[in-house]
Amino acid sequence: MNPKYRGDAKDLFKRGFLSLVRSFSLVRGPKVLPLFTGEFQPPDVAAYLQLLAITDSAIVSQARFFPRQGRHEHIEASCVKEHLKDDLFLDPDRGLVASLRGDTSDREVITFDEAAALVPAQTDRVLMIYDESVNMADREKATGEKLDALQAEPLKLCAFAYFNSSPNHPNVVFTANESGRSRLVAIRAEMVRVGIPSTKLLPAE
Question: What pLDDT shows up at residue 2?
Answer without folding.
Answer: 59
